[in-house]
Amino acid sequence: MSFALTTPRMHRLAVHSLCALASALVLASSVSVTSARAESPTKFMQRVANELISATRSGSSIAIGKVITNYADVYSIGLSALGSYASRLKRSDRSAYHRGLTLFVARYAAKESPKYPVVKAVMTGATKGGRNVYYVDSRVFMRGGQTYDVRWVLYKRGSRYKVRDAEVIGLRASSYLDTLFQKYIGENGGNPRALVTALNR
């Protein structure tokens, strides 16, 4: 990830704020759709967590990207991250933008996750939020003995769940993407096309 988006200062911000998330399934952090079948939100999220932990252990950005593509709400996360710049993103650039977002998160996770090795993630409960929104609480166990509590935000459309966000020690993962992306666009003429280009390098 050798593009200007990851300036040292912003990179440190991302590392410090997302370290628990990077270790626990990283974002992004996480971003498409999978059948919920008869799964409860906790069973669904446990399956996602197991697959993402396996992918991060492999160190492969391709493997991590597949998990992101299969389970996360990339479209909603991506548009939210643009803030007021979302209206300036041309329709013809949307596919490239969401592809680049997935690539950016997958590369970041592949690079940072070895620093925060996860032993397991255990779902501890779920609550219903607003319409079609579910919160799944989990505890992440690190190799060094540390634990982190992570709250996952799921959105359900029909019979399908999507991972929309994660919260670690009160910090939302999505908020840091928002900061990174909007700052980069603002520093590059206010045109989202500059971000799309950077993400896809």
Structure description:
Helix 2 (41-58) packs antiparallel against helix 3 (61-71), helix 4 (74-82) packs across helix 6 (173-186) and helix 5 crosses helix 7 (192-199). The radius of gyration is 16 Å and the shape is globular. Strand 3 and strand 4 form a beta hairpin. By secondary structure, it is of the alpha+beta class. It has one domain (4-199): Nuclear Transport Factor 2, Chain: A (Roll), CATH 3.10.450. Strands 1, 2, 3, 4, 5 and 6 form a six-stranded antiparallel sheet that branches. The chain is 48% helix and 22% strand. Residues 1-36 have low confidence and may be disordered. It has helices at 8-24, 41-58, 61-71, 74-82, 94-112, 173-186, 192-199, and strands spanning 34-35, 118-128, 133-142, 147-157, 160-168, 171-172.
Attribute tags:
single chain, 201 residues, alpha+beta, Nuclear Transport Factor 2, Chain: A, 48% helix, disordered N terminus
Mean pLDDT: 82
Overall geometry: globular
Corresponding CATH superfamily: Tgt2/MlaC
Q: How widely separated are the two ends?
A: 8 Å
Write the topology of this structure:
Elements: H1 8-24, E1 34-35, H2 41-58, H3 61-71, H4 74-82, H5 94-112, E2 118-128, E3 133-142, E4 147-157, E5 160-168, E6 171-172, H6 173-186, H7 192-199
Antiparallel strand pairs: 1-5, 2-3, 3-4, 4-5, 5-6
Helix pairs in contact: 1-6, 2-3, 3-5, 4-6, 5-7
